[in-house]
Amino acid sequence: MQTTRIAIVGGGLAGLYAARLLEQRGIHDYVLLEARDTWGGRIASASLTSRSLPSVLDRFDLGPTWFWPACQPQLDRLIHSLGLERFAQHEGGDMVVEYAPNQAPARTRGYVSSPPSMRLVGGMGALIDAVLRGLEPKNLVMGQSVRRLRCDGRHVELESEDAQGQVRTYRAEHVLLAVPPRLVVATIDFAPALPEVVMRTWRDTATWMAAHAKYVAIYDEPFWREQGLSGEARSARGPLGEIHDASMPGGSAALFGCFGVPARVRQSLLPTRCCARTAAPN
Fold first, then answer.
1. What is the model's pLDDT at position 101?
2. Which residue positions in the chain have pLDDT lower than 50?
3. Fewer beta carbons under 10 A from the terminal one: N or C of the chain?
4. pLDDT at position 238, please?
């Protein structure tokens, strides 16, 4: 059994940021447990490795893409403190809309976000990379799915499993669950059991955009901009319900779209690649 002062469950931005705050306060006696073999949680920036450009210029967000400094000041301060380069989402030009399945796409005046939507060079994954650089690697453990929490009134024992079913046990004074509440209820057993009202509240707490999925198409040139289009589109026909410009400054031109197909339907389909390279349409 390993002992630690603080155990953080979940290696997404929330868990990593919590570890960063501990480090800044001189608290190094902690462990951060992440079930998957990568950090970032729902923040995922896929690299296009087939190009000779530096990978930071060709990383595209499959999870969160934008942030709004005016609405998210704490996140904005973190990004500023890490010295990350930002840029405004391209929204100049008209948009294309498919109003109904039996109607042709129509060109219409585009919308501009207010306040502006901002993105990071290198994708939101650049934020995860920067936070990780300030943490003690020995305190970070991937591939450990926390299955049980037992509290004896003084300590909390955490049992985790790796992909081979091997169990590890940690004893901590404090535990921070940096995981979506619904996922906690579905994957972790508590002893003693949590109050039913807490379990029900967590089970009913939606995870923002959890059912969404993206498709990224890479192009040689941003042909839509040359045509006075913003790259934004909406469709009542699908399969992509909305499309946006995903190009990186100095990198590849790209569009990303969010599927308008329910998650349970997508689960029945064969897996596909996250990115596709295609030529501009004639």
1. 84
2. 51-54, 276-282
3. C
4. 80
Give tens-digit pLDDT for 184-229. Answer: 999 999 999 999 999 999 999 998 888 888 999 999 999 999 999 9
Give the pLDDT of residue 278.
Answer: 46
Domain boundaries, the chain: 2-42+130-203, 45-123+211-277
Name 171's Cβ contacts closer than 8 Å, sequence gap at least 6. Answer: 1, 2, 3, 4, 155, 156, 157, 158
Where helices occur in 82-115 by DSSP H, the ranges are none
**pLDDT given for residue 51 in this prediction:** 47
- Write out the two tokens for 248: 């990186």
The angle that helices 13-24 and 125-133 make with each other, rounded to 10 degrees, is: 30
CA–CA separation, 6 and 153 (whole Å): 15
CATH match of 45-123+211-277 with 3.90.660.10: yes
Residue 191 in 3-state DSSP? Answer: strand
Burial 264-280 (b: 16+ CB within 10 A, else e): eeeeeeeeeeebeeeee
180 conformational bin, left if phi > 0, alpha if psi -120 to 50, beta if neither: beta
pTM of the entire structure? 0.89
Q: Which phi and psi angles does 173 have, rounded to 5°?
A: -80, -35
Half-sphere exposure of 214 (CA within 13 A, CB side): 24
Tell me which fold the domain 2-42+130-203 belongs to: FAD/NAD(P)-binding domain (3.50.50)
